[in-house]
Amino acid sequence: MEEVSKLPLPEAFLDFLQANGLDASIYIASDTPRYIRLKPGSEGDLREIEAEINCNLERVAWLPGFFSLPPHLQIANSKAYKEGKIYGIDAASGAAVLALNISGGDNVLDLCAAPGAKLCMIADLLGDSGSVTGVDIARHRLAACRTMLQKYALGDRCRLFVADGTTFSLGPVRKFSHSRSCESACKEDTFTEWTSRRPWKERKKARKARKPAASALIAESDSPELIFYGRDSGVLGTSKSELYQIVCRSEVLSRGYDKVLVDAECTHDGSIRHIQKYEHWGWETLHQRVLNAERTDNLTNLQIKLLTNGFKLLRLGGLLVYSTCSLTVSQNEDVVERFLKENASAVPKVQRPCLLSDSITTKKSLL
Fold first, then answer.
1. Which of 260, 203, 196 minimizes the C-alpha distance to 228?
2. What's 43's DSSP letter?
3. Cβ of 287: how many Cβ atoms within 10 Å?
4. Distance (Å, rounded) from C-alpha 119 to C-alpha 27?
5. What is the pLDDT of residue 362?
6. Contact 216, 162 (CB under 8 A)
7. What confidence score (pLDDT) does residue 72 get?
8. Intra-chain end-to-end CA distance of the chain, in Å
9. CA distances (Å), 144 to each of 38, 75, 139, 199, in order?
10. What secondary structure does DSSP assign to 262-297, as a single string?
11. Is the entire prediction scored with pTM above 0.70?
């Protein structure tokens, strides 16, 4: 790649930045750091990790467990990375997860889970209690989440659904008594321990029900497809009818998710490296994905739908965080403002300046 400081930003993008009050100079930085998170329990290996990658990792003061490293440094071949002691995650993603204020025992919903780094951090913070449900509309991207969870041994309390986040309506796994579970097992199929190898008949049935391979996304009308669940996710021993039971609003108020993260699809204009890549992808592609007014309108409508549905699945007194990697007001403040006007029971929570996300909680519990 050429010297990044010589990046020739197109005039149309410069106009876009000016209209949104953004400084173009942020996109020509040549020393934007990368970030990693140290898996809990690996703190004692920090010096060994630094010696192996020949770099002193700098702690990020406002993000526990996060370290910055030079942009040129590669960690994929390091022992620590291969053993799952460290994983790459943007600081902005970490800020969104931190804003959830996760506590042990929380049932957490990540409504736009791919590619999986935030999901890993949520699982890290949950520790030995609670659960996390990851949802994404793209099957191949959610499969990448599954790979990450398995690689870092963080999937025990996680379940993953290929589903449309604007219509997903499954609550946390309910806890049934042992006698009821046994009774259900006699009448219905129950989930046994997850394996990547499903029976041949089940794979054949899934192929018939699946859309043509050319389409990577599921249709809105498709039922959620469970593609992974851990041993302690609450799925093991649960019947399929119990798992796929849609929760009504009255039940959600008491049995919904404690925390919901809506890290919505956006134009990605806030990702410096993403914008820099358009020099090689082609600036016309930038126009189609970032500057096209029709696409932007479609995105804001999607963001509102995701935020609204995430809030519907939140229990009374729960906390929702909405975030994007766009710097535009239209995809952030405007979306939240519109949502608040349409949902009187939602109360915004003021965050510290370093947390670039909006938190929303239900009216009776201002967290």
1. 196
2. G
3. 16
4. 28
5. 47
6. no
7. 86
8. 46
9. 20, 19, 9, 22
10. EE-----TT-HHHHHTHHHH-HHHHIIIII-HHHHH
11. yes
